[in-house]
Batch of 3 targets.
Target 1
Amino acid sequence: MILSLNWLKDFVDVTDVDVKKFCDDMTHTGSKVEQFELLGEEIQNVKVGLIEKIEQHPDAERLVICQVNAGEKTIQIVTAAKNVFEGALVPVCYCPDGEKRVAKLAGGMEIKTGKLRGVLSEGMFCSIAELGLDLHDMPGAPTDGILILNDIVECKPGDDICDVLKMRDTAVEFEITPNRPDCLSVIGLAREAAVTFDRNLTIPAPVIKGAGGDLRDYVSVSIESDKCSRYCAKVVKNVKIAPSPLWMRMRLRAAGVRPINNIVDITNYVMIEYGQPMHAFDYACLDGSHITVRTAEDGEIFKTLDNTDRTLSSDMLVIADSKKPVGIAGVMGGANSEIKDDTATVVFESACFDGASVRITAKKLGMRTESSSRFEKGLDCENCMGAVERACQLVELLGAGEVVGGTIDVYPVKKPLATVAFEPEKINRFLGIFLSPDEMKKTLEKLEFKVEGSVITVPSFRDDVRCMNDVAEEVVRIYGYNNIASSSIVASMTQGGMSDSRVFREEMSDLLCGLGLNEIYSFSFIPARLYTKCGMAEDDVRRKSVEIANPFGEDTKTMRTTSIPSMLEVLDLNSSRNAKSASLYEMAKVFIPRENVVTNIHGLEGTLPDERIKISIGFYGAGDFFRMKGICEEILKKAGIKTAKYVANQSDPTFHPGRCADIVLGDTVLGTFGELHPVVAENYTFSCPVYVAELDLALIFENSSLEKEYTPLPKFPAVTRDFSLVCDEETEVGTLEETMRMGGVKILENITLFDVYRGSQLPTGKKSVSFSVTLRSPDHTLTVEEADKATKKILGALEHNLGVTIRS
Amino acid sequence: MKELLEKIWQSALAAIESGNDAESLRIRFLGKKGELTAVLRGMGALSPEERPKMGQLVNEMREKIENAIAEKAAKEKEEALKNKLLSEKIDVTLPGNDLSVGHRHPIAETEKMMRDIFIGMGFSVVEGPEVEYDYYNFEALNLPKNHPARDTQDTFYITDNILLRSQTSPVQVRAMENSKPPIRIISPGRVYRADPADATHSPIFHQCEGLVVDKGITMGDLKGVLELFAKKMFGEDTRIRFRPHHFPFTEPSAEVDVSCWECGGKGCRLCKGEGWIEILGAGMVHPFVLSNCGIDPNVYSGFAFGMGIERVALCRFGIDDLRLLYENDVRFLEQF
């Protein structure tokens, strides 16, 4: 909402308040000012000049030399303009004292004294564009010539052009919150200003002389829907369509509205002044004399004022004559009844439509208008009549037509005024302030609430006030939010903190940082093509994703089911920017669609997806498969998971089939990691192998054992035995270790791999694997015999189960 | 005899002087076959009266030589140590080993700072789903379908009644449904709005909202908590300012500015000359919201507040483009 301060002065006098203070104080009482603009400020030293004499330029056929009376002195201007004549009053831009002061035009252009073809020219005549105006602001003005003022305004040489054209104003832009549609009007803001600056508010009631007659001879109205709570109308005859006067055009311009013609301008003027959208339509276009407010028919086609065909549906409200709609209620009028230059009789409509209905209609038709955006917030029925009367008053003021006697006011159910309990003590306690009931009462009454005893009657334009909290806000915004003293909560003690799972997540993050990984944050939605890019097959179950119904483009459409595509994109970005290495992790949420199984307490339809946090890890140029495995091992160690196994995964299409492992605990796969499949890697810019991992945080947490218990330090020495085994290339080291443990040797403390050898000394297809085995008893020093016996048992298990023997 | 001792002493001194090592000196002069031992052996030829005297002299000399040799040995050791240390000298300006500790993301850093402050004030951290029912994101928060205030948040929808949460407030609704007052929670988390990404907007960002519900909670308490938070977060001299505003789920509602930590409120580039930076939205929980969640507004009152984590992160770290946070260039990440 842009407010013209000139306009505001019609209702409240704040002329002595500095603009900055006006804006600050209004903001602090609840009408937030976004910015203000001093209109006419950028135009400097443009005066009215009277052209007294015109001579031909001696050296230029197209130029003339004008002697111009500019008030304080006569100056000489050389111009190429063709529409100047002796006796013309024109805007002239010049520096009154030569070079000292600068003359400026709209857009910041500066004008100085100069010579044109050898002849002194002390300034420049202005066209409307140079004053920042267009044909809507100055109808009939020449666009390719100088603005001639003689027939437009009364003025004399030396007058300031901004004053003459009423361009000087201050436009203050407010951010009005949706609960205060009453403030989308000059009167509403005047009311706020009057309270803020403790001034008197004067809202004169419109006075109409009237031209007699009875508008019932012209039109009648009936409402056939409960979505229209009131419909007021007046008829104006003998209309003369013309531009509206300069003052009205300039006020509309300051408010950001483009002037059209007197009737249309009046509807806009009233909308801005009263906050009540108005509609004017040409009486001649009505079929019959009866107007009905009814719901549209499904599929009904209707051409709106903007010349677009709209397909209506039965949940939309239209204003119709006996045969056709003439307007979509609260949204836009129809092309069929538009005010034209030859319109002779006008019907003014000032009605109140249901907010939600207007909102749905406007949204469905994709046409949010100034009118609909006001109606959807819920307007005051009581405002309709004043607005239409104001429009008629303006018609008479402008001489735009004759107002037919009588009024149409269809108002089926007058809405009673709401009441709220007046509870000053409760308000004080709630806000933590100490205001007397009288002070509160005074504030509320200035805001036009009626306070009688313990009952507050809410004015009709304040539908937003419904309970104690609302009243408290009214009181405190005028008292000053910043006058509330800060206090400490006096209440029950609470123990702050995080859930165990959240603490675990933070600890995991710290661990991963400690292992040299940088944390990333990536978007939770991805373009579906990234599934293909990371190698997923067309029928991969992970492609079944939660999809956004109203995305803007593919990139924000698919909620990811895996964190790997995001990680690869980030690694790729760094690689493409020539980072030699990158080591990254993310606590990445993924969204797995769920069947309709979960019930909720409100019986809400639909099932929310399973949201899981994945530990996503990726790196390149900084280690190999075993760095990744080391990281995974540290994660499990941190979680106290001791029995997980690493099982080769040869089927995940994202990974190298020979360099990928699942982390398996019992029947549960905790995660997968490995080297990116070389074919997949070709989809990116990588120049070295890339390793990625995805582990399920919740599964790890569920299986974690975080309790720590002290194991006494060993009191007796250990015995170590080293041996090398020869086995088939396919035999995994993990299997060998597992088999050794199967030997049932209680004193087996630890098995450490220290070498894997392949070479000419061995038969083809065989490898040698060397282990160091630590044996220890908790209660005595082992004898050589005991150690030998244990070793034999271990080797026996290997031979018996795998046929693996010691290397000779 | 005396002369002989004197001669030995002199030759010992000369030997020490000439740089023989301590051990060989000890052997030569004090050892079993050493020169002094030889003197002692020759004492048999002396008279019984002279013997003790001479013995004493020899012992004195032994001590003298021993001391001299020990002194020599100490010097040698010192010298050796000095040489060793000298040879072990390193160029301390050489770079340290690259241990490559990773960095938390600036959003995580900022969230942690906020979390720690509120945990210190007795707040619990709660989380909730990001794909959420319309009911929790809007309806329970006094924003029925077709409420015009829904337009202020462009929302991504999955179905008609499931959406990507546009605020973390649904977590508060769930918390109020699931627990009885006293409630003192914050709900940091990820939210979604259909805003295309630019330097100051992102379709995904993070909020940290807070909620307190108990008997006798006042708007003064809200100011108290936020003032304390602002001082801890932005520095002890920070002041806060409330401006009336409207949120459907709080009444009264306020936008909260903190005094600019860069200029202290005088006005600078960071605060665009205002002296204040808008950080928070806050207000007293709307009684309709309390009753929607099964809490009697006649018995309990409460306040809620919320802020954008990215906004605070950008201001605090002087980052001029929000998109950098989601781009994850390692040169960016390693600065935090």
Target 2
Amino acid sequence: MAQTVETHTGETLERPLGLRGVAADFSSDQRAFKNVSWGKAMMWIFLLSDTFIFGCFLVAYMTARMSTTVAWPNPSEVFALTIGGQEIPLILIAIMTFVLISSSGTMAMAVNFGYRRDRRTTAILMLLTAVLGATFVGMQAFEWSKLIAEGVRPWENPWGAAQFGSTFFMITGFHGTHVTIGVIFLLIVARKVWRGDFDTERRGFFTSRKGNYEVVEIMGLYWHFVDLVWVFIFAFFYLW
Amino acid sequence: MVDIRSGADEVIPLAEVEDVELYHPKSWWTHYVFSQDAKIIAIQYSLTATAIGMVALVLSWLIRLQLGFPGTFNFIDADHYYQFITMHGMIMVIYLLTALFLGGFGNYLIPLMVGARDMVFPYANMLSYWLYLLAVLILAAGFFVPGGPTGAGWTLYPPQAVLSGTPGGQDWGILVMLSSLILFIIGFTMGGLNYVVTVLQGRARGMTLMRMPLTIWGIFTATVMALLAFPALFVACVMMLFDRLLGTSFFMPAIVEMGTQLKQGGGSPILFQHLFWFFGHPEVYIVALPAFGIVSDLISTHARKNIFGYRMMVWAIVIIGALSFVVWAHHMYVSGMNPNFGFFFATTTLIIAVPTAIKVYNWVLTLWRGDIHLTLPMLFALAFIVTFVNGGLTGLFLGNVVVDVPLSDTMFVVAHFHMVMGVAPIMVIFGAIYHWYPKVTGRMLNEAMGQIHFWVTFLGAYLIFFPMHYLGLLGIPRRYHELGETAFIPESAHTLNMFISVMALTVGAAQILFLFNLAWSLKRGRPSGGNPWRATTLEWQTPQTPPAHGNWGKELPVVYRWAYDYSVPGAAEDFIPQNQPGLGMPTREHAS
């Protein structure tokens, strides 16, 4: 029972399967994760750290919601939109969630086409992902302005506990910042793909290192993470 | 077992990763200032941390002057006193100890000790330092902003931290402090990712995890912990910043301030304490674990003996790291949280003593019948062990709820944490500097100055903090600007306070001698050669001393053995470097 793993030096490495493989990898030299590049390992560890940030935000929010002395506003009513004379609860959030989840789909496709070295399709899919991400942020801006117009502030709101506005702006704001940063990096990487930097091994402006198509996948890891975080925010903030 | 066996007969594994192309600096600026070389970054980190640490040292003098001679120094009023203790604590814990162990020693030693050319992401590593420097500058700016730095205590407990009665609460002080912390955390994350990935994915051929020196294990585990613990502080800082700037009420209960009801209300101050200590307790071990690791290597090298129970040492480090995430509320026994938590957190706290005790026993057993050289690093390592045992034992007092409640907020607590996370890690830092200075500069530190520095610091630290336990048992509270006339405090306590203050000034003066030694030995120290301590680990085997850019010559080192082959019977020398294959002696196996 063994599998072979490609190394970066062109040799292949025999590794045992299953748990034995895990043990063998961790007791081996050079790398604990055998076919994981430095960049990908860094992104995974960063995301683990970022998970703790969002975890702390959400736990803090839940504490505030459970311990506040004033009643919490009802999210179904607060986040409802009146469309055609009909009040539909959470409709905007549903569309936002749909858009963001779809962007994860286009991102996954971009990674696939990246590894096939299809520059054009990869770049287009990344741009599409960026557009979906920007749409999400745009809808969030709409949601914020609607609530602000209705009188929600970080320090008060018309319906109940002041912590509603505080946690709402803080958590969705922090998540929205993540999406915005993601959009910016998507555009940067899409430009690199389009220009063929990864085929010509052009060096990065800041780091003077050569990139490769794995950068698309690392970008994708971040994007899927931001998506996943939204699912938790959606569940804990809007559905609770 | 396979991993710590002498590897002379083993097949050398294939290289899995191509040799990296290093960034080659083109000008003086990119060489020495905006450097991407981990060794230069390490020196930048260390010098910055030392500089801001000197500020904290001076602050401690001012604190002691006030406590020892109350009423004598008019410029230290109550506000200033609180600002001094706050800045002293914050600088020492975060900007000195954390930055020096991880940013300083981590950057210098990780690539060298695991046999890499540099950190895996040199550019991010450089950014890490510059963000750290920015954080330090913003922190120091606190002394010059209107209202001065915050006086909320280093724990920054709300709501008092953002109220007008606290220095800096309604002025700039608290804002400056929180912004600086947020920047520090962002900067640290960039460096921390580097350290972790370099250890996991950037090691030399033959360097398995279980062949790494314990220094690397300590720094690695501490970095992982920091990456998971700092987020809690980050979140707490952001939320308090909003409380202060936007008027949100995350941490603000209903409060009447100066006769007026504040608009804020309904928040939870205890939430901040939980977030803060979820960071704050791991932080203790973020400082302690690198110290544990480094001291293991110092003891082994200078006792010319392999570390006792290497495998156990590694697991103890990992277990302490994991356990330290579930003990945080032992800082909060008197906070008003649910008393049932006390039982849980006291239990986990006492369990942590087990792996810690294993480490202490193993250090002592390493010394047992070793060929102990009383060099300066060894003296500091021995000082660490005794100080740490002392501080650890009082930790058992404070970990128990019933004993902690009467001792809370007394000088006993001050004495405890200064012994265990002040003096003990600082001893290791000194030992480590005496140990690695020859590698960084190519010259030895002056021995005579070093001896004076050691004895004054070690004995002085004891004379400062030992009597403090007694003051605490008398019930003398901490964080009091002046004790005044109180029935339960005898006259002798004031005399003792004076004595402590004089000792604090003396020990501080010894540190200035140390800094002078660092500068003096740079030019005038005895040339050390590449491996003055005859040590086994890779950093002593570099082709040049100080190591050149890229650390190794054309070929990366190949590792054949663990880091502790000292006094091996039958070997030509009393140490076998890690990158040396068999010594023309019969293949030999370690007991395992």
Target 3
Amino acid sequence: MSSQTTAPAEDVAGGVTETPRERVFALLQRQGGPVVLVLVVLLASIFSSGFASSGNFSTILVGNAYISLLALAETFVIISGGIDLSVGSMFALGGVLAAWGMNHGGSGVAVLLPIAVGLVVGVVQGSLIAYARLAPFIVTLAGLLFARGLLQAISNEGSTTYLVPGHSVFAFLGDGTWRPILTAVALFAIAAVVLVRTRFGQALFAIGGSENAALLMGVRVRRTKVFVYMLSGTLAAVAGMLNASRLQSGVTNIGVGYELTAIAAVVIGGTILTGGSGSIYGTAAGVLLLAVIQNLIGVHLSQYGSSASDLVNGAFLAVVVVLQSFLARRRAL
Amino acid sequence: MAAVAAAMVLGTAGCTKSSSSGNSSSAGSSSSGSSSSSSGGGQQQVQTAAGGSGPACTSTKYGAPKLDLTKVTVGFSQSESTSNPFRATETKSITDEAKRLGIKLIQRNANANVSQQNTDIQDMISQGAKVLIVAPENSDGLTPALTAAKAKHIPVLTIDRTVKGTACSDFIGFIGSNFYKQAQISADDLAGGMGGKGEVAVLQGTSGNNVATDRTNGFTSQIKAKYPNIKVVASQTANFDQATGQKVMEQILQSHPKLTGVYAENDTMALGAIQAIRAAGKTPGKDIKVVAIDGTQQCVQDVANGVMVADVETNPRFGPLAFSSLQKFYGSTGTSTKVIIADHHFTKDNAKAALSNGDVY
């Protein structure tokens, strides 16, 4: 069990003797996402003309910068053995709250309001999961509905789209090419450090591995759980807020199904859905892999209609996940 | 195992939001190959009265370099899944017309995701598109894409839904239906079917774009102005979606048992509503009159059979009109910034003939 965590210290202390074959499988399972990403990018650069251009790369990166933060939030939650289905709705709510705040107080409100609401919703969800011992799936499904409902309430059943003036400070925040990319890179880097180098990060691995064992080890299980859902809610709302700044409007019908894309990116990145194992850079690779595939499907399959795109997208995901669970099982034997 | 399940769910997630009527007819009547013949349903016709209702826009005025359309790449950004016959026909019409004119076309489908559409558009710009035709998913969320296009002096023509901004500056103009008028016609049809009195429910479309807004306002204002004995007792959104339409209709039928009329802002919601009416033990067309907008095959069939009172068309065959507008844009005359098309209106009298003529998509 202990060798499942990616924390470097744990790897060495795992103590289980592995054959070279097992080690390759272990590596593939953990590095599967990055390896496939490199492979796909290489193949696309050779066979798809126009793929390997700075314009195309920056489009892929900018277009996925803020959505990638949902996968980042989800990584923390899934490592702790939970799941957060509310991130897509929180993303939409964060955007609408920001745009609403822009129209009812200015840039300061636009930034702070989504953060506050994301934080509160996260704490409530976390408390219900940690203290009332409710299933994360159910609690965050309720959160999904609640956030969507709140969005509908402040946007007149979704029919009012609040606009962000293009010259405001808030619009500057998420605009441009480099700002979204650097924001995402910075947050991923901070998250990686938090996950591997802090007590909180280690507690997440411990809880995800075995909650009882973590409790016996003296980990503050409940407090950590509240904190991880708070982090997830806040991050999702911030992502939505930044996206609203980029779109210069609080789009109301955005974010549907984003939680599933986020979960898929996390899983492709090698984080195990049952918790206890995972990495931030794996998630980054998962996000990029999905984005690159989406880009390639757009270039080559759009002309054949949505059904062809959906088919290939679904088939590819199924292959990646089946492969990964196969590798994971080989490891466990 | 759970991981596999998650991926499976995701596989279908791409199309869950788009309205699908389950009838992906191959749009045999679309414009393939033919020049602008004046046949009944096939081609889009510019409404004579409102023909060039906007001021003319030329490439010089727009600040875009003069181009020969046949020598450059044109990009087309579709907003929603082509599992919806409207979207399928629209995409086919654009593709066919580009082929006929010998224009190189690249395209993307945003699957009802406005963030994706921004990426799609920027993507096509970096892929070398010099002119863009955009079917906007949302009226307010395309600022980054439009800004990027403007920075590179790439003109954008919007079809079927409008975007915010200034015509002939942020985008060339708009080609599409008069959604307000469509709704007014539907109101007249429904009032006629109900004998000018009774309780009506409205199934609204997805919020956040001008289509749903105009179709709601046009209907309610027409009822208020002309039919004092008709009361709109419920008005709820069903997201242009069949399953949602059915669910919402079930609830409305329970809370308003005396309901005798339904106005659905698109065909797929009407199909859902009809299922709900039948499930409640009532007969659509007899106990409860149904009208809708879009003119897809299944609903026009229902009109012919008397299940629905009438259906107003939203003609999705944008190809010929879009490309001729672009050619005028690069010519000396310029193109109108607001081209409103004349839509068909299917009633019991003409539905059967329209179906057999292949005028319905």
